[in-house]
Specification:
Strand order of the largest sheet: 1-2
Shape: flat
Order of helices and strands: HHHHHEEHHH
Distance between the termini: 61 Å
Strand content: 15-25%
Number of helices: 8
Structural class: alpha+beta
Mean pLDDT: 87
Largest sheet: 2 strands, antiparallel
């Protein structure tokens, strides 16, 4: 029975990618495919093309969102068509008028982009970031000592090496 379900899912991989691109959750994708969540997870483990389709869709969605955020951060010009009607000599005439507008740069969008794309320079708390990085390196060192199991390396000498 699972093979029949896989053949159905396999034939709809492009749709799965599109659903993922449109922001559907995996639960929603399951519903659209007519499979339960466990089956989808099993198929993702067994058939890499399914996982790739889901990930490709998500990557495209993220890229589109990043582009929209970038455009909003910089501001942009756009044209809007306004429809109006006028009565001239008793006759109603519809008119289309093109209006040029400008959307100014958005400070919040700028902040989000800088914080995520250049986090080394745009961070809420640089001291916390640096401390987290040091803790991570220290934890790696502790794990290395545990794996080696060398009694000659004592905790204090490892700590002093890390501080240097």
């Amino acid at each position: 029975m699972a093979r029949t379900k896989w053949s159905l899912v396999k034939s709809r991989l492009k749709m799965v990618e599109g659903w993922s691109k449109n922001g559907l959750t995996e639960s929603q994708i399951c519903k659209n495919l007519g499979v339960n969540r466990t089956t989808l997870n099993d198929f993702k483990d067994r058939y890499p093309e399914l996982l790739e389709a889901i990930n490709r869709g998500r990557e495209m969605a993220v890229a589109e969102i990043e582009n929209a955020l970038f455009k909003r951060a910089l501001g942009y010009d756009f044209e809007e068509t306004k429809e109006s009607s006028r009565v001239i000599d008793g006759k109603t005439i519809k008119c289309n008028e093109k209006i040029k507008n400008h959307l100014p740069p958005d400070v919040a969008a700028c902040f989000i982009l800088l914080k995520n794309k250049d986090h080394s320079n745009w961070c809420d708390n640089p001291a916390k970031r640096d401390l987290a990085r040091e803790i991570f390196e220290f934890d790696k060192l502790i794990e290395k000592i545990r794996l080696i199991g060398d009694d000659s390396l004592d905790f204090h000498s490892a700590q002093s090496e890390h501080v240097k």
